[in-house]
Design goal:
metal ion binding; 3-keto-5-aminohexanoate cleavage protein; transferase; alpha/beta; TIM Barrel; eight-stranded parallel beta barrel
């Protein structure tokens, strides 16, 4: 087995500020937590931005540029910028920061889907900000759009236009077939970085059989042409990524995916989750990849070729 790449998704666009005082919101907080996560052993940092005044997800490249250069200056971690964005953002919104920053790596969701966040409403009686409740409720009727045309657009503009490679986010088995379609058309090139995602309402459930099936199917579709990673939401985060690692995957942690360190205990930082998964991997003789090793594994263009 090659070394395990730990990705860390720092803030995301799912959780809201009410849910945890440790969720990074401002550029200062995002930069500080990203740097700390890299120091703890994350070689890839997956980044969204938030309005520093109220914590609402924002696609504004100016906000991204308030933390991206600081992260690059302080770490050698691979920066992975979202193209998923958040609820209510257009495709142009979603890729604006990536086009500005020309990163080594971007996320790319491989299909349109329902993306239900509204069950979290039942856990909170009051919210800090007026936007939080309608944002979560709005996911009841939200379709996370990623059409074939959208995917082609992103691949053309960021892949061909900037030499950016992709973390292909696969929330369902059908997304693996969609990725195989783009590989057959030679619009994407190996090695493919395939992120299998479990436990999102609207996507594949966090079931062991689903994890093993995803691995078998990816092996069938991509052979040696892909690098696998596993991410799971909420309470499934650590058990599922541990199972993934045992079965040959890379792993993703971070407050985007789960706010907890263990049952009933909020994680105080992204770095705490990175340290926790390292404490699981290393006794299993699974060595953690450095950023430069991750670049080699994923065939990235290098940090000298970004524009931040």
């Amino acid at each position: 087995m090659s070394k395990v790449i730990i990705s860390c998704a720092i803030t995301g666009s799912v959780h809201t500020p009410t849910m945890s005082p440790h969720l990074p919101v401002t550029p200062d907080e995002i930069a500080a937590q990203a740097i700390e996560a890299a120091e703890a052993g994350a070689s890839v940092l997956h980044l969204h931005a938030r309005d520093p005044h109220n914590g609402k997800p924002t696609p504004d490249p100016e906000v991204f540029m308030r933390f991206l250069p600081r992260i690059k200056e302080a770490t050698d971690a691979v920066v992975n910028i979202t193209t998923g964005g958040g609820q209510g953002m257009s495709l142009e919104d979603r890729i604006a920061a990536a086009e500005r920053a020309s990163p080594e790596l971007c996320s790319l969701n491989m299909g349109s889907m329902n993306f239900g966040m509204y069950p979290m409403l039942a856990r909170y009686q009051e919210f800090k900000h007026d936007w939080e409740r309608p944002y979560l409720e709005g996911s009841r009727d939200w379709i996370f759009r990623n059409t074939f045309g959208d995917i082609e657009n992103i691949v053309e503009r960021l892949g061909k236009g900037h030499g950016t490679r992709f973390e292909f986010e696969c929330y369902d088995i059908s997304h693996l077939y969609t990725l195989a379609h783009f590989l057959d058309r030679k619009l994407v090139t190996p090695p493919l970085f395939v992120q299998s995602i479990f436990g999102i309402l609207g996507g594949q459930g966090a079931d062991t059989e689903n994890l093993l099936h995803a691995k078998r199917l990816a092996d069938k579709l991509f052979g040696d042409d892909y690098r696998w990673s596993v991410m799971a939401s909420g309470k499934y985060q650590m058990p599922f990524i541990t199972m993934g690692a045992i079965n040959g995957s890379n792993v993703r942690v971070g407050l985007e995916d789960s706010l907890y360190a263990r049952r009933g205990k909020l994680a105080t930082s992204n770095a705490e989750q990175v340290r926790l998964i390292r404490s699981i991997l290393e006794p299993l003789s699974l060595e953690v990849a450095t950023p430069d090793e991750a670049r080699k594994i994923l065939d990235l263009k290098g940090a000298d070729n970004v524009t931040f």
